[in-house]
Write a structure and sequence with these properties.
By secondary structure, the chain is mostly helical. Helix content is 59%, strand content 0%. The mean pLDDT is 86.
């Protein structure tokens, strides 16, 4: 579900860039706060093998998963 929305947005951006090479994108930063992007990124990182080491915040992926909704909201 998230991957489809992200792919759709990426396709829209690519099409716009292809059709108008002089177009300036001015609000790409806002996509970094898009719930779909953050959730998908978190799933990919947590799904990697070897990511059992605590991060700089001393939190492991298991601790992150226990408070998934709160952690995602905090990142967004």
């Amino acid at each position: 579900m998230y991957q489809a929305k992200i792919a759709q947005k990426q396709a829209e951006l690519a099409k716009k860039a292809y059709e108008n090479s002089t177009h300036r994108f001015t609000d790409l930063y806002s996509l970094m706060h898009w719930n779909y992007w953050i959730t998908q990124a978190a799933r990919l990182v947590i799904g990697k093998s070897g990511s059992k080491t605590a991060g700089v915040d001393k939190q492991t992926k298991d601790a992150f998963k226990e408070c998934w909704d709160e952690e995602i909201s905090s990142l967004v």
